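re: ur question from earlier - yeah i can do the single chain one, its not a big deal. heres the input i used so u can compare w yours
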Amino acid sequence: MVGLLIIVVLIVGAVKLLQVVLLSPGRIGKRGEKIVSQRIIDGLSGVNLHLTDVYLPLPDGTTTQIDHIVVNRYGIFVVEIKNYSGWIFGDEQSVKWTQAIYKSKHTFQNPIRQNYRHICALSDCLGIPRNLFVSVVAFTGDCTFKTDMPNGVVYSRQATSYISSFRTQLIKDIDVPEVFHAIKKWNESVGEEKRAAHVRNLSRRHAPVSSMSDAPKCPYCGAPMVRRVRKSDGKPFYGCSKYPACRGIVNIRL
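and the output i got, formated as tokens:
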């Protein structure tokens, strides 16, 4: 009888542990990403090439993860998937957005800026012009926006129709597979020496400059940069003169 009781206790403990693992925010988020990605794949008609869970190197030697990429004749759609519940407050310019749920408030990184970083990484790594990219931020989960949704931010159920709404051809049909395979090949090269060498080159372009140096060119678009002061800490930096169309920055070494 005691042995049976021990077995029951172990089973109950194992079930609870499994529930904790399966219901963890990370796993729930990943499941949400997979569902939205599959929904996009199933919902789009015509010639569309898809990549999910893409990793690309950043100038600081780290990597950035992209949830979903769609390549077609209308552009390269970089999709950032967010799994949130509750009320969402945010605008295009804010550094942080806010989630309000059960009388609690939490902030998270502005996903538009986050996705812009992804687009810059793709453009930098592959030499693809920035104007071929389209940012899409898709919110899944039981969330409601309490502020106006910025352009390119949609609920996940609207992601397919939003991508399908683009009808101006930007990429020649014959070039669509080439662009797709370039991204796919670079994704597969992460961790190899080729990636490391490329990151070193990017690092030099993004490295802080001396306060006595002339204003550098924007590492993202090549435009002249303007000396500015960061509101958060009062430190100077160079910002792209094309802001807000381009948000490239170079820190100043004091």
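Residues 109 and 235 are 21 Å apart (CA to CA). not sure if urs matches, ping me
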